[in-house]
Amino acid sequence: MNNPNIIEDFSSLVAGVDKEVPLLSGEKRRYVNLDNAATTPPFIDVINAIDTFAGWYSSVHRGTGYKSLISTKIYNQCRRVISDFVGADPDFHTVIFCHNTTDAINKICQCQCMDKNVVVLTTIMEHHSNLLPWRFCCNVDYVDLNPADGSLDLASMKDKLEFYKGRVRLVAVTGASNIAGFMPPIKEIARLAHQYGAKILVDAAQLIAHRTINMGRGDEPDHIDFLAFSAHKMYAPFGSGALIGPKECFRGGRPFIVGGGAVEIVTLDEVIWSEAPEREEAGTPNLFGALAVARAAQMLQKIGMERVAAHERHLTGLMLSLLKDIPGIKIYGDSDASLSRDRVSVIPILSERYNHALLAAILGYEWGIGVRHGCFCAQPYVVKLLNAEDPDAAQYVNQIINKDRGSLPGFVRISFGIYNTADDAEYLALALREIMKNGARFPYRLEKSAGEYFPLNSDIPLEHDFL
Ligand SMILES: Cc1ncc(COP(=O)(O)O)c(C=O)c1O
């Protein structure tokens, strides 16, 4: 289907969309998952691929038996699929499988930035996984945000690059914010970074399953040097992720993790490391994880990333326009329902009536809707978006030290995946309208140490057991 004005239904592609969950009222209801920025359900096709391959599974790179040869072949194919999916340059880039985005970013940090003279430029809108690694190994500075809406201030990035006069080794920026859905212009940033002799890392955790990524040829001025992402955010939750980076950056020195599989030869005094990717993948590889992420990439390619984007844009526009009409609900970041600026389907909201944790609990326990609340591992950005600067920020630190998370700042976050439908958006709007008007139907208690609300008198039986 090519008409971008028609909402499609991709719900049959993922596992579990028809699952019913118990509500506090005693009824059951189809679960509506609007927490895809945290993790996505698996594609059924991915589960089938794992199931079909299971009987052929064997050791990678280390056996001469047929199953081992097949396993090695599949593993190498998975790299090519990922390389193709992100538009990497096979002569320039290498694809390294890892556990997730966090693991991938730490790897880059260890191989590129273990030097207090190195400057890494990042932004205040980053997830902690793209903030903390830099802090402990090099000099880190933060690009400002536009005060009006919290989007990235490109002029500030240029000023900082100018200020450091060629000392910035890496610009580490998110491809899409996990809180406000903003998509910094990564190609423009890449061009700018290269002009100042820096490389660029794109944290693609929130981009990979939602927009086309084209890393580009290594000799193009706006190519992406490093890309990191997690498979569990792209319908393939089997413990893998990938780091794609320039081959030349993984030469010399020693790998992040050392051990079997990463070496050419070891004597008691000497070691010669393999070339990347093997040198960065010490230990037995996660073949099922690699297969899952490659299969998910093929599935997304088959659907077409433009179609994915069009579908999710529809849902986002619809959700924003529905939210705008609900008294007592405030949208943060960009609330433009016409989507004049492209964004991913992540929407932060707050209610006048209920704290974010309580609103999320009511949606879950009374309506069977899964959202996430809090700071989403991006505390500095949440504080910024809420204008809760010092001294409030210092006060929050004290509260956490005193094990009181009951009044910490945060949002309720709505995030769509390819399989969500207009019905899901409308059901959430119905629930929010009802909650804002008539309140919660059941009483809740706050567990201060967790910052979570639980039903006061009853609880929902967790009746599913898998062990
Ligand atoms: C933008 C962004 N970066 C990094 C991460 C970390 O991903 P993972 O926990 O899979 O390593 C997340 C996870 O939510 C994210 O949203």
Specify the number of helices.
12
Question: Number of domains in the coordinates?
Answer: 2
- The helical percent reads 25-40%
Number of strands: 19
Alpha-carbon Rg, integer? 23 Å
Gap between N and C termini: 42 Å
Ligands, deduplicated: pyridoxal-5'-phosphate
Tell me the quaternary state. single chain
Strand content is 15-25%
| Secondary structural class | alpha/beta
Q: How is this structure best described in words?
A:
It is built from twelve helices and 19 strands. It is an alpha/beta fold and 467 residues long. The protein folds into two domains: 11-41 and 304-455, Aspartate Aminotransferase, domain 1 (Alpha-Beta Complex); 46-302, Type I PLP-dependent aspartate aminotransferase-like (Major domain) (Aspartate Aminotransferase, domain 2). The strands form six sheets. It has a seven-stranded mixed sheet with strand order 4-10-9-8-7-5-6, sandwiched between helices. Strands 13-14-17-16 form a four-stranded antiparallel sheet, covered by helices on one side. A two-stranded antiparallel ribbon has the order 1-2. The longest helix has 20 residues, at 66-85.
